[in-house]
Amino acid sequence: xxxxxxxxxxxxxxxxxxxxxxxxxxxxxxxxxxxxxxxxxxxxxxxxxxxxxxxxxxxxxxxxxxxxxxxxxxxxxxxxxxxxxxxxxxxxxxxxxxxxxxxxxxxxxxxxxxxxxxxxxxxxxxxxxxxxxxxxxxxxxxxxxxxxxxxxxxxxxxxxxxxxxxxxxxxxxxxxxxxxxxxxxxxxxxxxxxxxxxxxxxxxxxxxxxxxxxxxxxxxxxxxxxxxxxxxxxxxxxxxxxxxxxxxxxxxxxxxxxxxxxxxxxxxxxxxxxxxxxxxxxxxxxxxxxxxxxxxxxxxxxxxxxxxxxxxxxxxxxxxxxxxxxxxxxxxxxxxxxxxxxxxxxxxxxxxxxxxxxxxxxxxxxxxxxxxxxxxxxxxxxxxxxxxxxxxxxxxxxxxxxxxxxxxxxxxxxxxxxxxxxxxxxxxxxxxx
Length: 433
Ligand code: 3BY
Ligand code: FES
Fold this sequence. Notes:
This protein is an alpha+beta fold. The protein has 2 domains: 63-161, Rieske [2Fe-2S] iron-sulphur domain (Rieske Iron-sulfur Protein, 3-layer Sandwich), CATH 2.102.10; 178-432, Naphthalene 1,2-dioxygenase Alpha Subunit, Chain A, domain 1 (Alpha-Beta Complex), CATH 3.90.380.
């Protein structure tokens, strides 16, 4: 879009206007030539210029999941997160959360270099320029320096919003207007788990050797879920099937699933928890899917028996048998909300062929490790599943790099992948003009 080119051409010392125009045209042509219903052409996964366009058109424009309040429970707590070239400080303050660009206004150094910590003021490690929690420059002494107006050199800010304990940021000057509507949809599903009052039991960081879109595509289908034997133990064997597709040997399992669904719906009604599936995949700027489903066995948690993995219920929840409430949001996150724990997943693109996937397990604040939960058991299913997903993503990245790769058709069971790609394509085409 003209806006992207203008930004580039007006910043001195960056890419020249001519090169920027060429880059813009080539990426736009890729979108114009895309075959609907098929996976993307290889450059969408392998080309640094498409990655640069994604960073502007998706990560530079839309609301992004950053962290949860459980990761920054007290004022002064912060995490630093990167979306491609952008680096942000997500700082808890007395009033809420500030998202500040982690780029010193002196000579551009990263102000904070640790992934997480607690700080009063923000002190750049290079020449000690010091900023307060709002990003205002409060200290920048240098011998003989006079008439230096500190007010002109505050840290740049991004927009931030906290919804039901989840922190979202938007890097655009004008954030998309529909986030209020989308947050009203998911707030009632997430709020009962009281994420703001939960604590981090464990955090896993996996660097996947794959483009961020492959990470998201893989998350949006369970066609490959035979590759997740530990997760499959928690799900009904008929998961993902419709009644007419159930083979004779799974008819009993189908009936158990139907019975469990009815019981779960009744329980949700009794406790005032929303049960309906929400599916607004490519119609909204944000894109959202929420579904609540029973789990097999005891139906309480992601364990082989379905039994609870933490003895403490989250928030004011009054029953362990709430199955799993799974939420997908475009472009970079998904969540599993259970009665005894919540798992947040965030994809942070690094470059065109690498993505950091950060998974965070949250339990009730008063749950004691070794007493109320065993960390290995709590994290087992999704640690295994994540490593398997990493492998699937990397298989695809390797395939996309081959001259023999060509886009293949999405199956019906991959409609959510197709919806994600359609969402991405539409937003990028709007952005590129
Ligand atoms: O449920 C999830 O989070 C998805 C489904 C398939 C891949 N991933 C395990
Ligand atoms: Fe931060 Fe110099 S670059 S104080």
